[in-house]
Design goal:
Helices cover about 15% and strands about 30% of the residues. It is α+β, with helices and mostly antiparallel strands.
Length: about 160
C-alpha cells in the first residue's frame, strides 16, 4: 500500500483534517508511515513533505549525499541518530514540538547517515530537502539492516545513547 500523496496545486493548504487522514493512512501502511508531498514530482528542485510516523515505523539509516535536509517536529517526539561511515553512532538527539521547550528543528548539511526513530506514536514532521529526489547507489549503507526485526533491534540499540 502506497502512503504517499501529492498536495493539490498551486496552493497547497494543509489543515488538521488532512493530518488526521495521514495518521489513519500511516496506521494501515506497510511501513507504518504516510506522507503528503507539497512538491509535484520527484524532479522538483525543492522537496517538501509532511510525514506521519507511527510507533512501528522503521526508517533504515540513509543519507542525501551532497544535499541538505531540514526536519521539524510538528507533533510528538522523534530521535535522530547520526552514524559514521561504519555504522557507529556519532551523535543522537531528540526533537519535539516548539511548545515543549526542546529542540524542534534540525538541518543536516554534510551528507550524514541518519535515521528518524519515533519515540511517541504518532510523530508528525515537516521535511525539506533539495531535489531532485533519487535513491542513488549510496542512499543506504551496507552496514544497515534492510528491515524487519533486525532493523528494529539495530535502531533500538542506536537510540539508546
Amino acid at each position: 500500500m502506497s502512503a504517499t500523496n501529492f498536495a493539490k496545486q498551486p496552493f497547497a493548504l494543509l489543515d488538521k483534517t488532512l493530518i488526521s487522514h495521514l495518521k489513519k493512512e500511516a496506521i494501515k501502511a506497510d511501513l507504518g508511515r504516510s506522507r503528503i508531498c507539497l512538491h509535484t514530482t520527484h524532479d522538483d528542485p525543492i522537496q517538501e513533505m509532511i510525514i506521519v510516523h507511527t510507533g512501528r515505523s522503521l526508517d533504515r539509516p540513509h543519507r542525501h549525499h551532497g544535499k541538505s535536509i531540514s526536519i521539524m517536529v510538528l507533533e510528538g517526539v522523534m530521535r535522530i541518530p547520526i552514524f559514521d561511515d561504519y555504522g557507529t553512532v556519532k551523535n543522537c538527539f531528540e526533537l519535539s514540538t516548539i511548545s515543549s521547550g526542546a529542540p524542534f528543528v534540525t538541518r543536516l548539511s554534510h551528507g550524514e547517515w541518519y535515521a528518524c526513530v519515533p519515540i511517541s506514536d504518532p510523530v508528525v514532521i515537516f521535511e525539506s530537502l533539495g531535489g531532485p529526489f533519487s535513491k542513488g547507489s549510496n542512499f543506504y549503507p551496507s552496514w544497515a539492516p534492510e528491515g524487519g526485526e533486525e532493523l528494529a533491534k539495530f535502531l533500538q540499540r542506536s537510540v539508546a545513547i
